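Sync notes, pocket subgroup
Present: LS, DG
LS reminded everyone that the earlier model was apo-only. Rerun requested with flavin-adenine dinucleotide included. Inputs:
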Amino acid sequence: MSDGIGARVKRKEDKRFITGKGKYTDDIRVDNQAYAAFVRSTHAHARVVNLDTSAAEAMDGVIAVLNGHQLTGDGIGNIICGWAINSKDGSPMNMGAWSALATEMVRYVGDAVAVVIADTQAQARLAAEAVEVEYEELPVVVTTPDALADGAPQIHENAPGNLIYDWEIGDQAATDTAIAGASHVTEMEITNNRLSPNPMEPRSAVAIYDEGEDHYTLYTTSQNPHVARLVLSAFYNVAPEHKLRVIAPDVGGGFGSKIYIYPEEITCLWASMKTGRSVKWTSDRSEAFITDAHGRDHISTAKMGFDAAGRILGLKVDTIANFGAYMSLFSSAVPTYLYATLLSGQYNISNIHANVRAVYTNTVPVDAYRGAGRPEACYLVERMMETAAREMGMDPAELRRINFIQEFPHETPVIMTYDTGDFDGNMDKAQAAADVAGFAARKAEAAARGKLRGIGYSAYIEACGIAPSAAVGSLGAGVGLWESAEVRVNPVGTVEILTGSHSHGQGHETTFAQIVAERFGIPIDNVQVVHGDTDKVQFGMGTYGSRSGAVGMSAIVKAMDKVEAKVKKIAAHTLEASEDDIVIEGGEVKVAGTDKSMAWHEVGLAAYLAHNLPEGMEPGLKEGAFYDPVNFTFPAGVYIAEVEVDPETGVTDIVQFTAADDFGTIINPMIVEGQVHGGIAQGVGQAMLEHAVYDEDGQLLSGSYMDYCMPRADDLPSYTLDHNTTVCPNNPLGMKGCGEAGAIGTPPAIINAITDAIGNNDLAMPATPQTVWRAIQAAKAPLAAE
Amino acid sequence: MYPTTYHKPETLEAASATLGDAEEAKILAGGHTLLPTMKNHLAAPTDLVDIRGIAALNGISEDGGTLTIGATTTHAEVSNSPVVASACPALACLAGGIGDPAVRHVGTIGGSVANNDPAADYPAAVLGLGATVVTNRRDIAAEDFFDGMFATVLEEGEIITSVRFPKCDLAGYSKFPNPASRYAMVGVFVAKSGGSVRVAVTGAGEDGVFRHEGLEAALSANFSPDAVDGVAISSDGLLSDLHGDADYRANLIRVMAKRAVSAVA
Ligand SMILES: Cc1cc2nc3c(=O)[nH]c(=O)nc-3n(C[C@H](O)[C@H](O)[C@H](O)COP(=O)(O)OP(=O)(O)OC[C@H]3O[C@@H](n4cnc5c(N)ncnc54)[C@H](O)[C@@H]3O)c2cc1C
């Protein structure tokens, strides 16, 4: 089948996207539509002393100015974090109250204190400026270490010392003993920089209250509309689930930031009921910087002990994670079960212990961002490995090989069971593609041009296919992480796939159609993928954590199994053959070894005509399935970066970048390559360019593209990609997931390469020209002193 | 954006009259600086006087070695102009390195000079070449024109009509772009006329563009990249921000000065 699994099919959805025919939330226009503009705190920490809305209310076009007291008075619930993490002493995490509109306190610059609803967007914005808020400023805490300092300003009453939890995993005593007996110990302090997510489409919401039906509709930029509906209903009391329809139409990127349910969506729904008007809000870029959940922001200290042969004996990690001012939906899981559980990397390590403290600061809430916890783990482990190799005078690839896990399944001391992999094979492919053997000559040639050339490795592993429901439930998750699908074969033989996954750039309309084409032998143009509307699609869990292939497609396969079984029964009955002899091939349903067959669409028609079905069979041809994975999946690979640094300015060029990934089965290599390209670009962004920075007063200094540096085409090289495939044994298609790998594997490869080039291992992300130049100066200083 | 009244006069006199009459008028050229400021509610002129309809303000000419560039001439026009390329290639190169194609096809020299963004490129050329800023009221020497960050000596309602660049023997511009904005983090313009060399630095100064006497002296004596090495470059008075502090900028001034010279020496 030319459109089937493994085909480089062009994306079906791209025609509408590149011709401007996509339909995004901001494109939705409804009758009676009004606009919301939020009044936001200009202080990072303050008491709201007085809110005077009278001037705003008197302005042209203003319908209402609503505040937090009215919102809570109407019973709208506080925003919650959905994953309960207990501290090591057994106490529950300290979740501070977060109201969609603040009442007494504001805790970050951007915290919403009121909303103006007006006839036009311009009127709403003007009136929002006319709302007078009197604040009593309070002391501010911005950085992770400051949050835990004695006498630090207290951000939430129920989180003494700003501590949300103090959690651990692994065996501390055994790890300490192992490291104490090591012949070499590598110790590092590692910071994972804070990032703004920057999806191309900013967040947007259109809320419609239908008084006649007492029913709400919310169009929104969501990666998981059913979860949004569930949370809006069960926790925020906006409306019961059956009275709330959530539609996430075309969504222009998410990277995690559109998983969460934010104050704005909640407020728009409530305001539409309050005012009797449909309410639209679309974030502008400046607003996005100060309201979209940021990513990462960890500081860690780590110790890794080795024996004389370079085998790892133990790894001990102490991490503090900054959660910002409030706990966002998945925040608690990110530095715990999505991070510390990956600290074994690709290595056989008998003893690991990680302690993680999460803290509040007066900054935008921090939550999952492409990779979510796994980039932090990978960065830590791979920086440690490269550093250890340098300290022990070993080849960094060799040190990795000595420690690679060779046998599967492999249980790590941090509760993951890796199912399969071929880590040496990944390394072989990457080294060959990167021509590692020729590096010395390239370095010499660069030196002749006055450039410092360096090479760096990263052997990443991540956990995707999120996640087995019972397992995550036992760890505190508030939801199951299965996926659903319905496969509808129409009377004419065309197929609709209703999926609980949500595409916001991943290309599901193409790849999901490809697996149907493969199975039923029909062209992908005869397959329609339906997603993103709670009225159309059965409950589903949405898209994040590279789960739509391994989990979402598995649900489709399960539903297709059921369809196939029924098709075979109908065909066997019609063709007077045994069900076991029926095969589906090339768009036909045949009796194997005979010339008896029915066209695919004839079976569909037979199912709906129901004139001649087997005894007792129900008419119709539509089946649903829920798929709950039995394990995570473990994409892994080796990335090799080669850089050239200009010693005079610190400017770093990535001159070569090689990625050898093992994603299991690949449905569409072109789309997978696109995912890897984008992931690497984001990884380069984190490593060299992007940094969300606050000043000591809690004002975001990097609040626009004048200061927040997004990767541009000329910052990036042409990548060399290769694949090494071990098929995932735990799902029907053998898939592992590819959506986050690039963002996970890239940063350590880049930093390892730059530090190799400049001969100074002390280099923080983002490695901007200034940062690299300073590291070069610091490396020179002792020489100059001699 | 706050409501505003838009005017598009066809003569300098009409523009001047509207500017005089309106409550709080602003000249609009490319709008690439002014309009974002208005959209962010940081500026709220009652009236906008778009000067791009005034034919006399546009165009490039050369006369006896003096290059005259009309105020509404876009960066792209300067960068692609054969006249500029032959009279002062460094200027064409500077204009071609401003922003991106969209910016270059709309932003104007008059707007850039009037705005005097400390990170803008043109001020380095204007000061480095010792240009004259011509307005509807007077001629202003580059030395007198720039008046600190985002400030110039332009009076209310005064319209830049052109910038006149005198002839020079050799000129070079080297820019270190801010990684995020791609404005100049440091830009050094070097111009040699006979035995005298002028060096103007943009992007780095707390008061905007400035001339560097030490570099001028050293390069006047020996116009070669090596001459730069001996010059002390102080970080006093230099900008510090997220992307580079004063020390780093001082280093960049040295490196960019060398590169500007080596490109033409
Ligand atoms: C994305 C982006 C990137 C950029 N990158 C760079 C860069 O790398 N380097 C760089 O130098 N610049 C850069 N710029 C700025 C760009 O060059 C602007 O166009 C320029 O600074 C202003 O010119 P304008 O014609 O757009 O002026 P406008 O925005 O129209 O006006 C700017 C100011 O000048 C006044 N003004 C305009 N014309 C006159 C006149 N004839 N007489 C008196 N006052 C006048 C206006 O009233 C206003 O106050 C960038 C801009 C953007 C948007």
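DG: Chain B touches chain A through 18 residues (CB under 8 Å).
LS: Residues 5-50 of chain B form a domain with the Uridine Diphospho-n-acetylenolpyruvylglucosamine Reductase; domain 2 fold (CATH 3.30.43.10).
Action: DG to write up.
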